[in-house]
Request: fold
Amino acid sequence: MFRGTFTALVTPFCNDQVDEAAFERLIEHQIENGITGIVPVGTTGESPTLDHKEHIRVIELAVKFAKGRCKVIAGTGSNCTSEAIAMTQDAEKVGADATLHVAPYYNKPTQAGLILHFKAIAAASKLPVILYSIPGRCGIEIGVETVATLAKECPTVVAIKEAGGSVERVNQLRAALPEDFVILSGDDSLTLPFMAAGAVGVISVASNLAPKEVGQLVDAALANDYVKAREIHARFYPLFKDLFIEPNPVPCKAALHWAGIINSPEVRLPLCQMTEANANRLRATLQALNFLPQ
Reply:
């Protein structure tokens, strides 16, 4: 159900408001280039600085603009269980196909607390649930045994976005989980090795700009054509790294703006624009890959 390439969309802003026209243009760019699905209002979508009304509006717009042509996985995670439930139920009402739930951050629950948190979310909605483990941002990981317990006890918990940076953990997850439980890479630079270890796709930042190319990498790996997949990975590895030269999505928004896909690189505080040195480095990488107008 969730094999392939899914874009963790940026949320375009103009004068501190969601730029709906730019958001539609970004989604059309995704669909025209064969993306499997889109993920509005995850971390890349600046979910921490969107209020609840804006958050649901962006999901609603993603569903409206996608028009059923690709899957819409709504980011509705929170470190507050009741808030995550409310956003998930709202996402279901506006037509999302699934929801993505980051591990609760800052309050650092135990694994037992994580199980109760995700069980409560799964029980409150019929939407498929994709777990999201990113200890670098959350301070905790969703343990392998925890994922296995949720997969066994919650029929709608069907996948995990794995962003812990470890191929060994992907091996452990694959060994512990049913064959039909989906593992997706949460890091563009690790998509290739993660897929070699059993992942079946990626939730990608780079595909905001390069949906066709990231999709080709994933499709090649799914077809066991690792020669082609390695060639694509090697070519785009500098982009995968430079999109994180400063906190995501600052570089990605700058790249999309320079490429003419969104109107402004604007981010919300406490994020801010890149230093001149980092902007020059990113621009050089994009020019080398022919992503900028000549």
Q: What stands out?
A: The mean pLDDT is 97. The chain has one domain: 4-225. Strands lie at 4-8, 13-14, 17-18, 37-39, 71-75, 98-102, 129-133, 157-162, 182-185, 201-204. The chain has twelve helices and ten strands.
